[in-house]
Amino acid sequence: MSLYEASFRVKHECPYREISERYPDLTIREWYLSECQVLEITSSEAPTDDLLEEIDGLGTILHRSVDESGLHVVTQSCLCSLEESIIDRFEEYNCLYQPPTIHRQGWEHYTVIAFDEGDARALLRDLEDDRHVDVLAKTAIAEQQIPHSMLAPVDQLFEGLTDRQLAALQLALESGYYEQPRQTSLRELAGRTAVARSTYEEHLRKAENKLLTNAGTFLRLVTATSNDPLRVDRSGTAEQHAD
Hints:
Keywords: Transcription, Transcription regulation. It is a single chain. By secondary structure, the protein is of the alpha+beta class. Helices cover 34% and strands 30% of the residues. It folds into two domains: 3-141, no CATH class; 152-222. Strands 1, 2, 3, 4, 5, 6, 7, 8 and 9 form a nine-stranded antiparallel sheet that branches. It has a two-stranded antiparallel sheet with strand order 10-11.
């Protein structure tokens, strides 16, 4: 089974795109995290006062430097609702967004991976209804060509987990609960917290369920074209390959 990668750029109303249009030497890389938005802003040219003022209005400055290599700024801001966003459209068409979004010279650049070429085509047709879309590349790719470390942003893996669920998961992991053989029990783990065993177990099971659910899309992508680690013999019995 082939996967499909589509790279394209779009134009529509967006403050970051508009800034990149006014300052052609500027490149803005945009990441969506669980509760915030991070921008990396670079330019090989020395910034003007007007540009620095605009950057100051984008959010909290985490880093700023201007030297012989040019401008480098990292900002963080509150994450506005992504409802009706282009990212939501990717998900509607079963396309996996590959961050970051890159804003340069008045264009927003995106890359997505689809499990079916038809999904990629349908996504692009939908985007063309209300914005200018320029397709840069659309190619079939093999799973092993994809760097697995880039598939799953950490915030997406842990999306929906509460602080208590994360704490329960971290305690279990650091205490050897998931080792073989296990180094601790649920009773012992709960005894190290201020909650009852049943409450701790509820937090842990919900954390495990959410984590595996979030990882499902990325697991499907990683295994899409790999050799089957479980082979079914002629009798219909699944045979596991040796490690």
